Fold each of these.
Amino acid sequence: MTLFDTSLFDKSRGPADEMPARPAARTAKKARKEAARAKARRNGLDERLLGPRPKHRKQHRTLFLSDIHLGTPGCKAELLLDFLRHNDAETFYLVGDIIDGWRIKRAWYWNAAHNAVVQELLRKARKGAAIVYVPGNHDEALRDYTGLNFGGVDVIGEAIHETADGRQFLVIHGDQFDSV
């Protein structure tokens, strides 16, 4: 240190050798985030979706999701994940063909975005949202599990949804009416 060292007058920080070491927890957290981003890039997930959750999410009474077809290359899982991160509801109805069992039987396709959608729905169930899964024709294997609950997701054959004004609607996938 010289006589004219200005660091003596800088009250915002001390000499370099007195700087506190970076907390190990913060460094480990940063390393985990970077590892998650790298894994997401390898698996084709848009890393912007790994950022912090939006502070202001739109709140709904009920949301209906249908024909997502997770397990297919054409599935828009990243768009759905973005939608789920920006919208909350008391009840989510998953109205058939959420997972495309037909396609998965022929050729397995499941990337990080597909996993992230499932994880986001399970997170919403843990936070108290009712998740009701009504299987369709592409996920018909789940019909064998009607009446059961998996991780907060109720699998049922059909539901009656009552609107805020008291009207009632039958919730089914509709493949029962296919002529094939």
Note: The longest strand covers residues 87-95.
Amino acid sequence: MKATYRRDNSPTKRRFFTLAALVLVSFLVLSAGPVRGVLSRAVYSTAPGLWELGGNIEGSWNAFWGEFRLKRSLVHENETLKEEVSRMQAQVLDRNLLEDRVLALEEKLGRAGSDVRVSANVLAGPGRSLYDTLIIDAGTEQGILVGDRVVYVGAGVIGTVVETYPASAKVRLFSSPGEETAVVIGGQSIPAVAHGRGMGNFEAKVPQGSLVAIGDNVLIPGGNMILGVVGATEEKPAEPFMHVFFRTPFNISAISSVEVIKSTP
């Protein structure tokens, strides 16, 4: 009997699978290049747009924040300048009266030529206290009495002390509604009574035909202290009086310190 043996094909199968694996790897290597190129081109084509968008967003935010900070700084600077302008306007009016006061002192040679004043800070003013009043940080311990006059920036008289305490006092402004103050208006010193209208505003009446012009000073007699500056006049044919509207030459709500003229014994 002739024996038959099955031929072992294992080496042939291994060679086949090895060859197939090499072909597959070669295909992947060859195809990976184009795929990688496509992906790379896609990334490089979209990345600049994304970077530009991010840059634009960052730039817009920086511009917005910068403008916001600039506006806030300008608002603060504007408020500071307004207060300084008010103070300078009052100082200019004070200097305009200086010559007259010097002449008056020369005529009174040998008599007291200056007031005794106490400086005080404003603790509460219009908007924080009622009815055009101020609360100041000086009182009876500093020799302040009820009735003492209160001035701002030298000659700008604003009110009188109405209540005193050891370390504080209440000041009622002349512009308080219902307050009446004797004044003289303009270069001809026309006498009148000023009626308070609140927040540094006044109204007075003078005879028709009186020479009162916008910009004229309104003074309290005896001391040449400025109460306000004429801002408008109004005449009605049927009335024998002319209405004069004036206000303090500074912003009442911006006052941070005052001087109290102590009464002489």
Note: The helical segments are 10-107.
Amino acid sequence: MTGASRHTVREAVQALVHAGMLERRQGSGTYVVSNDEHCGALAEYFAAARERDVLELREALEVTATSLAAQRRDATDISTLQAILVRRNELWSRDPDTESQRTEMVSADVALHRAIVAASHNEVYLQFYDLLLPTLSRSVEVRPVGIRASYEAQHTELVDAVIAGDPQRAVAAARVFISVLRG
């Protein structure tokens, strides 16, 4: 469904088991056992992680969450996504004059992606994504206006696919977005 290999998913789960956030129980499954202390440690780990590694984790999480959001979004999610997209695109259509304007642009972009994850109605995904937010905020770059037009179109397609309830289209849009981030 996400395109992530089983090996990649196993490695991610094993890392979370090793970090103490998941517990494997023989014959029963894998369970979340995280507490605030583990969350803080994991957030610090993400902050120090290589950008490529964070992007790969983001791909696995966002592609799946986008598919789920397209299947599970409700009327509140739709109106939230539409409002955040309008605000994001409005902010990103201008050149920022100040650091505070750049910060506002980044916040709007990150808020849109978080709203998509929230629309998946998977609380574990959302909590995990929230741990990534500081790292994601630092990695979002304010690009020149000419390049930003394509990002606006990509974000619009992503939201439109979720709103339309089309998981395949949403996954395709998420993959395009991530591939552009890879460069």
Note: The longest strand covers residues 22-25.
Amino acid sequence: MAMKKEEMIEAKKLNPVDFLAKVLEAEKHTDHICWKCKYLKWVLKGSGFPPADIIGWCKKIHWPHYWSISEMDVIKKCYAFEALK
């Protein structure tokens, strides 16, 4: 699927984080603090691999075996948190 000229102009104005958030759509959104962290790797829309309650993985905690984040978890504070830029 090719991008239209207007979409390409808009995409060039985005920083890398915003560009990926626009292109790679998440399966679900919650109110976790993780969504505001640069280390969250979210489950992509249409992906059938992870269990249904997993929203994503933290790329900083327990590297290289990333910690999975369930939508049932209540995360209010995290030592590995770094805000998106």
Note: The chain has one domain: 25-85.
